[in-house]
Amino acid sequence: MTGIVIAGATRSFGTVRAVDGVNLTVGDSEFFTLLGPSGCGKTTLLRMIAGFCELDAGEIRFGDKRIDRLPAHTRNIGMVFQNYAVFPNLTVAGNVAYGLKARRVTAADVARRVDEALALVQLAGYGERWPHQLSGGQLQRVAIARALVIRPQVLLFDEPLSNLDARLRVSMRGEIRELQKSLGITAIYVTHDQEEAMSVSDRIALMQSGRLEQVGAPAEIYRNPTSRFAAEFMGTTNLVEARALGRGGAGMISLRPEALRLDADAPAGWPRLGGSVAHVEVLGPITRFDVRLGDGSLLKVAALDEPHRTLTPGTSVTLAYDPARITVLP
Amino acid sequence: MRLAIPHQQRLPLAIAALGFLFLGLFLLYPLFNVFSASVLDGEGEKFTFANYVKILGRPFYRGAVINTLTIGVAATITTILISVPFAFALARLPVPGKAAIIALAAMPLVLPSFVSAYAIVLLLGRAGIVTQWLQSWGIGFGSIYGAGGIVLVYTLTLYPYVLLPTMAAFKAVDVSVEEAAQSLGSSPRRTLWTVTLPIVIPAILAGGLLVFIETLENFGVPFVLAEDMPIFAVEAFKLFVGETAPNPSSAGVLGVLLIAMTSLVLLIQRRFLSSRRFSTGARSAPPILRVGLGLRILATTYCWAIVLLALVPFFAIVVLSFMEFRGPVLHPNFSLANFTALFERSTRPLLNTLMFATLAAVGVTLVGVPIAYVVTRMRSAMASLLDVIATLPFAVAGTVLAIGFVVSFNSGWLILTGGPFIMVLVYTVRKVPFAVRSSSAILHQIDPSLEEASISLGRSPLQTFGRILVPLMLGGILSGFVLTWVTIASELSATVVLYSGQWRTLTVVMFQALEGGGGGIATAAASTLIIVTLLPIALLYRLVRRYELST
After folding, report:
1. A321-325, B113-117, B130-134, B296-300: segment of lowest average pLDDT
2. Which class is A4-232 in CATH?
C-alpha cells in the first residue's frame, strides 16, 4: 500500500512558522499520530497532506508519487473531521455514496459498497436516516464510513473524537484502531490528547512550535523522553534538578509519579528521600499525593489504592524511587 | 518551483475577478463619471471647482442640504423613540399576538414608502378625505406637507429597521447579567437603564443609521410631500432632467455631495460600532417579565397601534383604488374604473415591472452569492476590498447611480440608455449589498469543513460549490431572492431617471399620474403594486412554513 514521506515541509502564516522544516516517514499501513498542544502545527501538517494548505517549501510523497502539488480532490485521501462534516442535505447513504459518485462508480456498485461500509462501522440499516436524526457518535461513524468507502490511499483523522463524551471517546478510539488494522490503510491521526495518542498509535510524532520534538513508539516516548517538553507533555512527571536527588551533573531529571513509592513498599536498594505530605487526592484506583522535600521542592507521587493506609497532610514520610526509571534530560 | 496560484484559491480568485469586473464597470465607472461631471465645466472639457461654488453659493441648495439632514435626524430620533419601547415590549412583556405583530411589523420594509406618502396626501392632504370630513365638523389641523409629513411617513415606514434588530438584541441579553445587577442591589428600573439598555444600544444605533441613510436617499416620499421645500435627492433629479448642457455638472455636484454625506455617516458608524460590541452570549432568551394588568394593556395597545397605524395608509390606498375619482376629487362609490383606466392604456407597465424585477433578482443572486462566498471564505486584503466595493451601493442613492449610468452608457462602445437593460443593471447593482450580506450570514453558518470533506472525497471546488453549498444555502437564497424581487418591483428613485418610452414600470405610471393629477390611475397602480409585493411574500411564507413542518 502506501508509505508517506514528508521532506522539509514548511509553512508560515505571517511571521509565525506553523510548520518548520518537518521531515517524517510514515510506514505502509502504519497508524501514525501527530500529537501536541494547540498551535503546535499538527493540524497544519495534516492539512498539507490533505491538500488544504499550501507548502512554502518541501515536499510530500505517497510512495514514489509526489502529491503536494496535486489539487486536493485528486489525492484519493479519506479524511475524518473534528466536527464530522457530515453533509446535512444528504441521507446517511447519500453521504457515504458521495465520494463513490464523484468517482463515477456504477449505481449497483455504489449501493453494495455503501452497505458494506455502513456494516463495517456498525450502522447497517441506517442508510435512509438523515444526519439530524443521529447522535454524535453515529455521525462520526458515518464520517468514517464515508472516508473508508472510497478505498483511499491514506486515512487522515483531524481530532475525530474531541466532540464526543469521555466514555464514547474511549470505545471509539478502540474501534478506529481495529478498523485501520483490519483494512491496512496507512493512517495519520491528529490529537492533543496524550492518552488517546498512546492508545491508538503505532508511532507518535510529538510536535511543538512547528517542529518535531520526538518521534517513536508510545511507550518509548513515555519512558525515554528526550526533552523536558516531551517528559511533561507525555503524562505527568516530576522535573527535579539532579543535585536535589544527590546526583552529579547540572541537568534535570524526569521522575514519573509511579516510579516513587512509600518507604515500606519499596525494595531495599532504592534511594530514599525524606519529606512531608502536602496534599492528597484519592482518585479511586490510585491515590495521588504531593510530598514537600527538605529543600522546599514538591514531588508528585502516584500509588495504587491501599485500603488500610490513610495519608494526611503534614505527616512526615520517606519516599523511595526506582533508579532504573529516571530519565536524565539534557 | 511553485505554481503561481494555489489550487484551492483558483475558484475564489476567478469569482473575485468577475466580481471586480462587474462592479468596476457598473458601479465604480458610473460613479467616477458622476464625480468627473461635477468637476468639469458645462462643456465637459475644463477642470473646475466652479460647479461646487455655484451650487453651494445658492441658498436654495444650502437649504436642501439642511432640510435633508434635519429631516433625516428628526426621523431617526422619532423612529428610535417609538421602536425601542416597542422592541422591549415584544422581547420582555406579555403581549398577545406577538408572532402576528412581528410579521405585520416587517411589512413596511417591503411596501413602497412613497405609496404610504401618497395615501397620507389622499387622507390628510388639502383635499383629503379625513381633512374634508374634519372640516365639515369645523376642525382644522396643521399641514401635512413639508417636513412634518415627511418625518411622519419616514417614521411609519422605516421603524422596522430599528425595531427588529433592537428586539433581537433585547432577546440576546443574558438574563444572568440582569440578575447580577439586581443581586448587587440595583432595582429593576435602574437595571433596565444601567445594564440592559446599554447592552442593546449598538443595535439601536445600527438600526437608526439604516433609517438615516434611507431618508437621505429617498426620492419618492419628499417628491410627494415636500412641495416647495428643497430636498436633496429630488433636486438632483430635477437638475439632471432640466440640465441642457452636455455635461450634467450641477446634478453631478449634488450626487457627489449626497454620496459624501452617506459615506461619512457609514464611516462614523463603523468607527463607533466596531469599538462597542457587547455580546453577552445568552443561551436562551430572557424570560417574559411579570407585570401588572395596567402595563400589560398599555404595552399591548401600544404595539398593535403602531403596527396597524403604519399599515393604514396601504390599506386605505387599496380601498380608495376601488372608488370613483373625478379628476382629483373622490366619490364614495365602488368602481373598477381606475383599474380599467390603468390597464386599458397598456398592461406593459405591469409586465415590465414583473420582468425587470425577475431579471434583476436573478442578476443580484448570481452576483451576490458568489461574492459572499469569496468574502466569507477568503481572508485576504483582496477579499476585504471586494467586500467594501460590494457594500458601496448601499451609500449611493438610486438617483445618483442612475445619473451615473446615463452619463456613462449613452454613447461610446456600450450604449444602454433607452433600453430595458439599463434599469435591470442599476437595480442589480443597487441590491448587491443586500444579497452579499444575507448570503454571508448563511455562509457563516456553514462549516468550511463540509466543503473540505466534499473536496477530499473527490469533488472539485466548483462541483462542491454546486453540490454542497448551493443546496445548503437554498432556503436563504430563495428568501433573499423574493425580498430583492419585491423591493425592486417598487423601486422609484433610479427608475424615474432611467425609464423611457415603452419601458415604463408601475412606479413610473404612479409617478406620472401624481405629476398629472390622475388620482384614479395612481391609486390603481399603487394598489396593484401592493398586491404584486405581497403575493410573493405570502408564497414565500407558506413555502417556509411547509419546509419547517417537513423537517
Report:
1. B130-134
2. alpha beta
- What value of ipTM does the predicted structure carry? 0.85
Show the beta-strand stretches assigned E in B150-297.
none
Residues in chain A: 330
Cα–Cα distance measured from residue B8 to residue A72, given in angstroms and rounded to the nearest whole number: 8
* The three cell numbers locating residue B450: 463540509
- Cβ of B456 within 8 Å of Cβ of A82? The answer is no
**Residue ranges of B 484-513 with Cβ closer than 8 A to chain A:** none
Q: What confidence score (pLDDT) does residue B1 get?
A: 40
Helices (H), B93-128: 98-110, 113-124
For A71, residues 6+ apart whose C-beta sits below 8 A from its C-beta are A51, B7, B8, B460
- Using an 8 Å Cβ cutoff, are A172 and A196 in contact? no
The C-alpha cell of B225 is what?
Answer: 410631500
Retrieve residue B28's grid coordinates: 465604480
DSSP state of B468: I
Nearest to A98 among B2, B454, B551 (CB): B454
Tens digit of each residue's pLDDT (9 = 90 or more) over B470-507: 999 988 888 889 889 998 998 998 998 898 888 889 88
Structural domain containing residue B167: 59-228+264-321
Task: Please indicate, yes or no, whether residues B141 and B159 belong to a single structural domain of this protein.
Answer: yes
- In this prediction, what percent of chain A has a pLDDT beyond 90? 64
Beta bridge partners of A255: A238, A326
The CA distance from A113 to the nearest CA of chain B, in Å, is 15
pLDDT in tens, A46-67: 999 999 898 999 999 999 999 9
Does the residue B166 lie in any domain?
Answer: yes
Tell me B380's DSSP state: S
Flag if A79 and B456 touch (Cβ within 8 Å): yes
Query: Are residues B399 and B309 both part of a single domain?
Result: no
Maximum Cα–Cα distance for chain A, whole Å? 75
DSSP state of B285: P
CB contact under 8 A, A52 and B458: no
For residue A23, give Cα distances in angstroms to A45, A227, B444, B540: 11, 19, 36, 57
pTM: 0.83
Query: Who's near B402: CB < 8 A, 6+ residues apart?
Result: B426, B493, B494, B495, B497, B498
Question: What one-letter code names the amino acid at A310?
Answer: T
Would you list the DSSP string of B312-363?
A: HHHHHHHHHHTEEEETTEEEEEE-SHHHHHHHHH-SHHHHHHHHHHHHHHHH
Widest pairwise Cα distance in chain B:
90
Indicate the CATH number of A236-329 among 3.40.50.2300, 2.60.300.12, 2.40.50.100, 1.25.60.10.
Answer: 2.40.50.100
Conformational region of residue B421, where left means phi above 0, alpha means psi within -120 to 50, and beta covers everything else: alpha
Do B281 and B410 share a structural domain?
A: no
The CATH number that applies at residue B113 is: 1.10.3720.10
Q: Please name the amino acid found at residue A317.
A: V
**Do B287 and B361 belong together in one domain?**
no
Q: Would you call B6 an interface residue with chain A, using a CB distance cutoff of 8 Å? A: yes
Q: Could you state, in chain order, the average pLDDT of each consecutive group of 10 residues for chain A (330 residues)?
A: 88 91 94 94 94 92 91 91 91 94 92 94 93 92 93 93 88 92 94 94 95 95 92 90 74 89 87 89 89 87 83 89 86
